């Protein structure tokens, strides 16, 4: 990747988290870029319509990137295929249901349905990349991978800490692998107070037999309402919905097994099914 392109992408990704705008000095400092070079890159991004300058001189994203993303998701057909399934599962569980897509080493939330009509609601931001070690979706995907590949993904992203996530977030690879073993036995993941305090969630991979998982279906809600017993009761419905999406997903490029659920990161072949290995001490 060229230096100019890398700097431009770093700025765009940084501005995603600052919708109100950020000063030139803060951008250059946070991204470890020279102020003069950062200013030139920002001016180019302004010229091409990806960044705007606010009245007080800060820099913020325009709607061009979000519009491109929404257009891409819409034309992929994934929401048209998945939304009826998500809606049905949300109505039957009366909880939030989410669809996450596998993209290389990331899981990105792209669709949702809210089943709860009253009381506490749980609804994280759409479009976020999930922390693999701390999310039910991350666990559901990792449990389908060979152990060394799962460890590699988590190591590169980093373990989430209980201080930043929930008090039950795994603090070591060994602890995470133990949780994944438990998830595999039941066929779907269940976590409580792992992604956030007071939150429960469960997830099942969208995966055709013998192929790589292309997405994950998630049910989430407040722990006061979504207990472990209730999540176990929801298990068959969750698995049935995930299997339905696996069967119909070939109609969307984002859920095609041939593409490994990715765009721009197509591998030669999907990873082999998860297998248990002899573990060295970690």
TrEMBL record:
Entry-linked Gene3D superfamilies: 3.30.450.40, Winged helix-like DNA-binding domain superfamily/Winged helix DNA-binding domain (1.10.10.10)
SUPFAM superfamilies: GAF domain-like, Winged helix' DNA-binding domain
Pfam families: HTH_IclR, IclR_C
GO biological process: negative regulation of DNA-templated transcription
Annotated GO MF terms: DNA binding; DNA-binding transcription factor activity
PROSITE patterns: HTH_ICLR, ICLR_ED
Name under which the protein is recorded: IclR family transcriptional regulator
């Amino acid at each position: 990747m060229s230096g100019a392109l890398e700097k431009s992408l770093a700025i765009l990704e940084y501005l995603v988290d600052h919708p109100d705008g950020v000063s030139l000095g803060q951008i250059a400092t946070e991204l470890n870029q020279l102020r003069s070079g950062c200013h030139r890159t920002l001016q180019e991004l302004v010229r091409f319509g990806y960044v705007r300058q606010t009245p007080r001189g800060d820099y913020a994203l325009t709607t061009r990137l979000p519009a491109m993303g929404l257009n891409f998701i819409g034309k992929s057909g994934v929401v048209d295929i998945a939304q009826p399934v998500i809606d049905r599962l949300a109505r039957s569980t009366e909880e939030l249901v989410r669809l996450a897509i596998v993209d290389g080493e990331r899981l990105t939330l792209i669709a949702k349905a809210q089943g709860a009509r009253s009381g506490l609601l749980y609804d994280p931001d759409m479009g976020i990349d999930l922390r693999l070690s701390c999310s039910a979706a991350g666990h559901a995907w990792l449990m389908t991978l060979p152990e060394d590949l799962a460890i590699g993904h988590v190591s590169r992203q980093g373990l989430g800490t209980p201080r930043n996530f929930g008090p039950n977030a795994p603090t070591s690879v060994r602890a995470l692998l133990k949780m994944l073993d438990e998830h595999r036995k039941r066929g779907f993941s269940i976590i409580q107070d792992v992604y956030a305090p007071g939150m429960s969630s469960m997830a099942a991979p969208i995966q055709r037999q013998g192929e790589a998982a292309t997405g994950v279906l998630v049910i989430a809600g407040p722990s006061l309402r979504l207990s472990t017993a209730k999540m176990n009761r929801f298990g068959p419905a969750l698995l049935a919905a995930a299997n339905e999406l696996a069967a119909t997903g070939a109609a969307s490029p984002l859920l095609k097994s041939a593409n490994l659920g990715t765009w721009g990161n197509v591998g030669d072949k999907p990873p082999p099914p998860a297998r248990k290995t002899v573990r060295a001490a970690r």
